Amino acid sequence: MSAHNLQEIESFLYLESSYLDQPDLDKWVDLFTEDGKYWMPASETQKDPLNHVSHIYDDRVMMEIRRRNFVHPRSSSKNHLTRCSHIIGNIQINSGENVDEINVTSNMHVIVWYREEQQIYAARCKHILLKQEEKFKIRLKRVDLINPEAPQKSLVVYL
Amino acid sequence: MDAKSNKLIDELVEPTRIHKSVYTDSSIFELEMERIWGQAWIFIGHESQIPESGDFFTTNINHREPVLMIRDKEDCIHVLHNRCAHKGAKIVEERNGNVRGALRCGYHGWTYNFDGSILNIPNEEGYKDTGFDVKGSCNNLQPLAQSDCYRGFVFATLSSSTPPLKEWLGGAIECIDNLCDRAPEGEVELAGGILRYDHPCNWKFILENLNDTMHPMVVHQSIVQAAEDYIKTLPEEATEHRSEAEIIPPFGASYTNFENSGITGFPFGHHYDGGKTSIHADYTVFPAYHEAMMQAYGEERTREIYSFNTHNVLYYPSLTIKCAIQNIRVIRPISVDRFVVESWSFRLKGAPEEMLQRTVLYSRLINSSMGMVGPDDLEVYRRMQEGLVSSGSDWIEYHRQYGRDKELGDRVVGGGTSDLDMRTQFGAWKNYMTGNL
Ligand code: FES
Ligand SMILES: [Fe+2]
In this predicted complex, what is the ipTM? Predict the structure, then answer.
């Protein structure tokens, strides 16, 4: 996957995280392929999203529902102003399992402002990207928190 | 506590209203830990977590006391205080794991058998002629006052005067039975991990909410609408095999539906809503599962097992279960305004994998701190915690269908939208708190 230079991929990850920073879930969901998934496992080295519980495991259908709920005036947990700040680093490009896939790993620190409080998340991320019509699309974003088994606070946005 | 304090406590809970300090006063929280959590049977864990000799699981029985559940070489399960007999260091620090040979304290190296009995004290010679009995039972890891197991669910209590587990569970035991009977092999096992959700509010809010059927159509209106609006735009094939499409919409069920599900209460604060019907009643019965059930139980018994359909069952104060979903939630209080909820999933032994997958899906969709339902529930608990600081009133009310509950043998039954669940819990709360067990 040497054809993809680091800068191009970095820019894409920055764009993605800028949508989550606002958060603008409409634009963000559109970055995913039709079969795209967002996965936040609930335990370290979790292999299986179906037989083992996760914090989130959303396909496009669930993302579509979530983004509608996010702006619904009667979703009480979303009545609070939510702002995020993502910092992404240690980006590495690995060859994907399929020839058309680009497998990117990165470290991510996110501060989330929610309910008058700043919450801190640290995670290792894995993106599986595809290039469709000269644009990157996300087939999988896997977010491995450094503390997936710790009691978690309410989180109303994707990291 | 003297009689006067009991009188004061008694006055906090009236038949139709509760004083706000029950949720906000940390000295009442401390009393709850001593008198409710220190006397009730508390859910510790499930025997399937510790299948081999030396397997252990640790937790707290109330917000502070560390306990250890361990299987010994004779296959007996012990619930012990996780505290070295020497200077009190915790013996086991990890949440779960396996010890080989013996438990060994990480401070001065005293070792213990898996049943808690003392095995060896290093350099024992120093105790000679000191009056210290090296073999004395006070050197054992102390067992909890009582521990017992019902169909794999391990409970313990700090009190020796609490009635035996089965008697304490009473008629509500039928729900643990129903959960296990839903397995073709009649047993469940923990599978699929545990979610832990930090709740910055009083521990009672969640218990009072689980069978508060006047809230789902308000608190969960947005997710039901978001899901239904989107699903409408999809071709039918896209959602017909998706459990989400069965799980989310019933949260918007009508008052009539919830009223018809009914609430059933028992002594010691246990209760459930549903029975004949519930928000889980219309879930697909997977053909492979149905076949396994029919083989195990035959038609009549299988129908009977399915037809007992509860929504939330509460074993007050620590355990809530969902029979139809094979999911439990465990309450771990921390302080007057903080607790953790653990969401555990169970596999029905002998059932096809899709059953566990639905359980796991339910947990992440509904119970996860990043789910579609849990955060909206927690939001309203937090609003109560913040609202109750107000001097606008000192009371919260629970009048719904007061005077209409009916006694029926070992239980009390009433309408599904009644406050019978509150009356049941607070009856027990009062009994525990004023020494009327
Ligand atoms: S405290 Fe455990 S051996 Fe001393
Ligand atoms: Fe709710």
Answer: 0.95
